[in-house]
Write a structure and sequence with these properties.
Blueprint (H helix, E strand, L loop, with lengths): L5 H14 L1 E5 L4 H16 L4 E2 L8 H7 L3 E4 L6 H21 L5 E9 L5 E4 L9 E8 L12 E4 L6 E3 L5 E6 L4 E4 L6 E9 L11
Helix pairs in contact: 1-4, 2-4
The structure holds N-oxalylglycine and nickel (II) ion (NI).
Length: 210
């Protein structure tokens, strides 16, 4: 696992506190990144991704107008790669608790695949029926992402100009789930990420339908 100094964590969480988001490049070790990418491909080629839903709507047409990604939920014990990833996420959760004075209890993560032409309209990750999500975390897996490939994460920080963040490989973005509006712009090619949420209370993953 990659080790970061406490000053480094502190400065990232200062940014998160002030701006509601922070971008960290080169977050994962090269080895874990490579393993995650190959597990992603394995699941994708076995058709183990499902169309993501929204809130309580299952109507395909409505969903398609809002989001076009396909997801696969992860579990700690799925294999060695998810185990290694969860060690890193455990560490991230402890650091958030330490430096942001939170008491996160759990997290939930999935792989997300946005096929060419897909997007996710502007939204918040926390809303009335789903107030367990405190911090959203996305790690991108897209090598050689170029200007013009689209698929940027557009964020709308309060009292600041909006900003587009390219989904480049091994870039992590963390943001406050209840306050940062964001959207995924139309992606002109296949766009991959590990996406998840740090939770206030233990996960009820068995009941999640999206
Ligand atoms: C989400 C989301 C952002 C991204 O899944 O809720 O907003 O950049 N993802 O993939
Ligand atoms: Ni979101």
């Amino acid at each position: 696992m990659k080790e970061f100094r406490s000053e480094q964590w502190e400065s990232w969480f200062d940014l998160l506190a002030v701006n509601d988001y922070v971008v960290i490049d080169g977050f994962l070790s090269q080895k874990l990144l490579a393993n995650i990418k190959s597990y992603f491909e394995e699941l994708d080629s076995s058709n183990l991704f499902k169309k993501a839903a929204i809130g309580n709507s299952n109507e395909e047409q409505i969903i398609n107008e809002i989001r076009g990604d396909y997801i696969h939920w992860l579990g700690r014990g799925d294999n060695d790669t998810t185990q290694d990833l969860y060690v890193v996420l455990d560490e991230l959760k402890s650091m958030i608790n330490r430096y942001c004075y939170l008491s996160l209890k759990d997290f939930e993560f999935h792989f997300a695949h946005y096929p060419k032409g897909s997007f996710y309209k502007r939204h918040l990750d926390q809303f009335a029926e789903r107030n367990n999500r405190l911090i959203s975390v996305v790690i991108y897996l897209n090598k050689d992402w170029r200007e013009g490939d689209g698929g940027e994460l557009k964020i709308y920080p309060k009292d600041q100009p909006e900003k587009s963040i390219a989904p480049i490989e091994n870039r992590l973005i963390m943001f406050k789930s209840d306050s940062l509006y964001h959207e995924v712009l139309v992606s002109n090619k296949s766009r991959r990420s590990v996406t998840g949420w740090m939770l206030h209370k233990p996960s009820t993953i068995a009941f999640i339908t999206e």
